[in-house]
Specification:
single chain, 371 residues, mainly beta, 15-stranded mixed beta sheet, 14-stranded parallel beta sheet, elongated
C-alpha cells in the first residue's frame, strides 16, 4: 500500500485537508497547501508524528498554525520561487516543530508574507537555504547545512541558540533584493563569520537590540555589496588577523575627483554604485594583518588616463562610532572577478593606510625634445 498524501486538495472546496500517512510507517508526501476557509484552528497539529516531504514545485502554507512533524524534507523553491514552506497569514506567527529535523533534499526557500519560527535543526549537506517574502523567519536550531544562506527579502533572525556556522556563504540581500535583514541582535556575545565563511550583499546586519550594539567579527571573507554595493551593519565591526576584505571597483573614479579631470575636486565616485562601501553605526576595528583585496569589475580599466595620477578612496568605511587600528601603508593586490591575480605594476599600485585606499601612479619619463 502506498502512503497517503499528507495534504490533499478537495476539488469541490478551497480549503486545507491533511491526512496522516498510515501505510507501514512510510513518510507522508506533501503535495500542495490550499487556503484555509476558517475550519483550521491555529495551534492545531496537522501532521502529528508523520514524516513529510515537499517535492519540487510544491508549497506548504502554514497559514498561521503551529504545526508538528517528525522529519520535514524540503526539495525546492515552491511555486514561482515563492517558497516551499511559507506563512501567508499576516496576523499570526506559525511555529514549526520537526522533532527529527528539517532536511534540505535540494536547495530550498522558506518565508512568505508573515512570520515563521522553528527551533528544529536544518541539515542538508551542500544544499542552501533562501529566505523569501516580507515576513520574518526565526531559526533557533544548531543548523548544519553547508550550502549558502541567501536573504532575498524580509528578515532572517537567529535567536540566542540559532546558528548557521556551517553555511559557507551568507548573502544578505542579493542582486535585485530589497529590505533584506540578518537579525543577530540576540547574539549578545557577538556574531562571527568563520574562517571558511563569506559574508556579502546589500542588506543590513542587525546587531543592535535597542540597548546595546554587538560586534560582527570577520575571521573569513567580507565582500560587501553585489559588485558593487553598500552593506550596512547596525552594530560594531571587527576584522581579525588573516581575514579578507574584498572591495569591488567598477569605475575609473575615486572619492575625490571627477572622472578624467585631475584638477577637479568634486566627488564623482558614488559609494555603492562605483565601488563597494560599508556603513557601520557602531565602532570599527581592523587588525593590521587583515587582507584588503581590490576586485576589478567591468568599468574599471587601468589603461584609462584616470590612473595616471594619484587617487584616493576615503569613504569605503562610513563609521558613526570610533575607529581603531587599521592598515599601515599595506600593499594591496588586484584580482579579477574570478579571483585571479592581476599585474597592474606598469600603471601603478594600491596601498592602504588606516582606512583610506591610495593609488600611486607610475610616472613615465618624457622624451627630451630634439634641438
Amino acid at each position: 500500500m502506498q502512503p497517503q498524501s499528507a495534504v490533499r486538495r478537495n476539488p469541490g472546496r478551497s480549503r486545507k485537508k491533511f491526512r496522516k500517512a498510515r501505510a507501514n510507517g512510510q513518510p507522508a508526501s506533501v503535495d500542495r497547501q490550499y487556503p484555509a476557509d476558517g475550519e483550521g484552528n491555529p495551534g492545531r497539529r496537522v501532521f502529528d508524528s508523520a514524516n513529510a516531504t515537499l517535492n519540487s514545485g510544491r508549497v506548504l502554507d502554514l497559514n498561521g498554525q503551529s504545526e508538528t512533524v517528525n522529519v520535514l524534507t524540503l526539495n525546492g523553491a515552491g511555486i514561482s520561487s515563492g517558497g516551499a514552506l511559507i506563512n501567508n497569514n499576516g496576523s499570526t506567527t506559525s511555529t514549526l516543530t520537526a522533532s527529527g529535523g528539517i532536511v534540505l533534499g535540494a536547495s530550498s526557500s522558506i518565508g512568505g508574507s508573515a512570520n515563521i519560527s522553528t527551533s528544529s535543526t536544518i541539515s542538508g549537506s551542500t544544499f542552501g537555504l533562501t529566505k523569501v517574502g516580507a515576513g520574518t523567519v526565526t531559526l533557533g536550531g544548531a543548523n548544519t547545512y553547508s550550502g549558502p544562506t541567501t536573504i532575498k527579502a524580509g528578515t532572517l533572525t537567529l535567536n540566542s541558540t540559532g546558528t548557521i556556522a556551517n553555511s559557507t556563504s551568507i548573502i544578505v540581500g542579493d542582486a535585485g533584493s530589497s529590505g533584506a535583514v540578518l537579525d543577530i541582535s540576540a547574539k549578545t556575545g557577538g556574531f562571527t563569520i568563520g574562517s571558511t565563511q563569506r559574508l556579502s550583499g546589500i542588506g543590513t546586519i542587525d546587531a543592535n537590540d535597542g540597548v546595546s550594539k554587538y560586534t560582527v567579527t570577520i575571521d573569513g571573507v567580507h565582500g560587501p555589496g553585489n559588485s558593487p554595493g553598500t552593506q550596512t551593519v547596525d552594530g560594531n565591526m571587527s576584522y581579525s588577523s588573516g581575514s579578507i576584505f574584498e572591495w569591488d571597483l567598477a569605475a575609473n573614479k575615486d572619492s575625490n575627483r571627477l572622472d578624467n579631470d585631475p584638477v577637479a575636486t568634486a566627488d564623482n565616485g558614488v559609494p555603492g554604485t562605483d565601488y563597494d562601501s560599508v556603513t557601520i553605526t557602531g565602532n570599527l576595528s581592523i587588525n593590521a594583518s587583515a587582507v584588503f583585496k581590490v576586485i576589478q569589475n567591468a568599468g574599471a580599466s587601468f589603461g584609462n588616463p584616470f590612473w595616471s595620477s594619484t587617487q584616493t578612496w576615503s569613504n569605503i568605511f562610513n563609521v558613526s562610532g570610533t575607529t581603531a587600528s587599521g592598515w599601515n601603508n599595506t600593499a594591496v593586490a588586484v584580482y579579477n572577478t574570478n579571483n585571479v591575480l592581476q599585474d597592474v605594476s606598469t600603471a601603478g599600485s594600491f596601498t592602504i593606510t588606516g582606512f583610506t585606499l591610495t593609488w600611486s601612479a607610475v610616472h613615465k619619463p618624457t622624451s627630451a625634445l630634439a634641438g
